[in-house]
Amino acid sequence: MKVPLLDLKAQYQTIKHELWQAMEEVLESQHFILGPKVEALEEAVAPYCGCQYGVGVSSGTDALLIALMVKQIGPGQGVITVPYTFFSTAGSVYRLGATPFFVDIDPVTYNIDPRSIKNFVEAECNFDYAAGALLHKGSGIKIRAIIPVHLYGQCAEMDSIMELAKEYHLVVIEDGAQAIGAEYPFENHGSSSRAGSMGDFGCFSFFPSKNLGGFGDGGMVTTSDREMAEKLKIMRAHGSKPKYYHHLVGGNFRLDALQAAVLSVKFKYLDTWTDKRRQNAAYYNSLFQQSGLIEKGFIFPPKAIWESGSAINPQSAIPARHREPARSGEAGGRNPKFVGHIYNQYVIRAKRRDELRTYLREHGVGTEIYYPLPLHQQECFVELGYKAGDFPESEKAAAETLALPIYPELEPAQMEYVVARVSSFYAN
Ligand SMILES: Cc1ncc(COP(=O)(O)O)c(C=O)c1O
Fold first, then answer.
1. Is the domain of 252 the same as that of 286?
2. Is the pLDDT score of 327 beyond 60?
3. N or C: which end of the chain has fewer CB within 10 A?
4. Is 109 in the pocket of ligand 1 (CB under 6 A)?
């Protein structure tokens, strides 16, 4: 049996006719950049993410870049983020002449650990009350923002992050590239909030492998700040408004109408596809549980922290600091029906990870390692002065994790095959 990591052709076949129709409309209009198709997508995605405004941009990377740019984050300034993420989270900070300050991740969620932020701030920074500014002691750099990444489709611990951001006057730019529609039980809101609606900005990617993926690059910034939304729109078109009159130095960060047309068609199916991914994750979890591999310590399936009441995610598996006492009549947790993870990736921790990956490849199973070398160890960031051992949880995750196929069209038999092959690997 062959089980690819991702099968985009399967999805394409199911909605081919609609996609061609939408693309043809763009071709007939000969309006290729921004315009009504982009506006329609923005008007659909922004409320879906719990925001008032959406600004379509050229990629998830450019979404991060432009959010930093409108907040004028640059030389002499710093941004707190994680080293265990896709490159552009920190790359976009660095490209603007600002300094990424890395802090470690939570080993269960793989997301930024608010305790690491607190430790960093308390040990390495001073808060200047008169100026309302957080200053890095060693360098004098002014820390301006935090970029939490909602990695693999699960929200970072946003209530603690927002509290810290408020205390230290920091901008919060959510890297939701992998997390469109992911939910978080934000306590102050009384119910759940979606990725991209809790910080000042949400940054999304429409890279083809994302839950909502285009036929090329694309992205969006979400915000509920009207002034910022307006500025983002100006910034994505070289900082000009009207055309040829430049208030700011922006760039070409525009989204194409063809991408927006494709994405608007796919958007209608997003919830159905996300549900399928969730079902697939639940099925994998039950298969792994039955396999005995977890008890033997060979593999550790992903934990969906921001959900509860499910047999596959007992409260006992959630670290105490994430746990809430069970309310009467409920299975435990914040809301028994709550499902937050959107499973852009289903990532296991595995003993002898690299050997397992080779074995699975030989048996027709596609996998991927996200991400094999944490950012603080990347050659291009040598001047930041980090070294191996600085972020043990990030380094461990980079050495031990493996993404398995989780796409919506995956058949139960394919998942059974994947888990059977993982079992046969450890049986040898
Ligand atoms: C966490 C994260 N941030 C940012 C990006 C950048 O998005 P894009 O590839 O659309 O530029 C990605 C995409 O892979 C990502 O996974």
1. no
2. no
3. C
4. no
Average pLDDT, the chain: 92
Is the pLDDT confidence value at 303 over 80? Answer: yes
Closest CA to 81 of 59, 58, 97, 104: 104
Is 85 near ligand 1, meaning CB less than 6 Å away? Answer: yes
The residue whose CA has the least distance to atom 12 of ligand 1 is 177
Does the pLDDT of residue 187 top 50, yes or no?
yes
Q: Which domain holds residue 94?
A: 8-267
Is the CB of 178 within 6 Å of ligand 1?
A: yes
Which among 57, 61, 221 is the best mutation to test ligand 1's pocket, defined by most ligand atoms within 8 Å of the CB? 61
Cis status of the peptide bond prior to 152, with omega within 30 of 0: no
Q: pLDDT tens, 191-210?
A: 678 999 999 999 999 999 99
| Predicted confidence (pLDDT) at residue 186 exceeds the cutoff of 90 | no
**Most ligand 1 atoms within 8 A of CB, residue of 6, 147, 178 to mutate:** 178
More confident residue, 361 or 310: 361
Q: Which two tokens stand for residue 97?
A: 């002449």
In the predicted structure, residue 28 carries a pLDDT above the cut 70: yes
Q: Which long-range contacts (CB under 8 A, 24 or more apart) does 309-314 make?
A: 309/333, 309/335, 309/336, 309/337, 309/338, 310/282, 310/339, 311/286, 312/282, 312/285, 312/286, 313/285
Question: Per the structure block, which two tokens stand in for 363?
Answer: 């048996």
Task: For residue 314, tell me if it sits in a domain.
Answer: yes
- CATH number reported for the structural domain that contains residue 119 in this entry: 3.40.640.10
* Candidate from 81, 84, 88 with most ligand 1 atoms within 8 A of CB, to mutate: 88
CA of 314 to the centre of ligand 1 (A): 31
List, for residues 267-290, the tens digit of each pLDDT value.
999 999 999 999 999 999 999 999
Q: Contact, 52 vs 226, CB < 8 A?
A: yes
The answer to the question of residue 3 being in a domain is no
- How many beta carbons lie within 10 A of that of residue 286, not counting itself? 15
Per-residue pLDDT band at 321 (split at 50, 70, 90):
low
What is the whole-number distance in angstroms between the Cα of residue 197 and the centre of ligand 1? 18
Cα of 160 from ligand 1 centre, angstroms: 24
The share of the chain scoring above pLDDT 90, in percent, equals: 89
| Domain total in the chain | 2
Ligand 1 center–CA 58 separation, angstroms: 12
Q: Which of 34, 39, 95, 49 is nearest to 69 (CA)?
A: 95
Q: Is residue 86 part of a domain?
A: yes
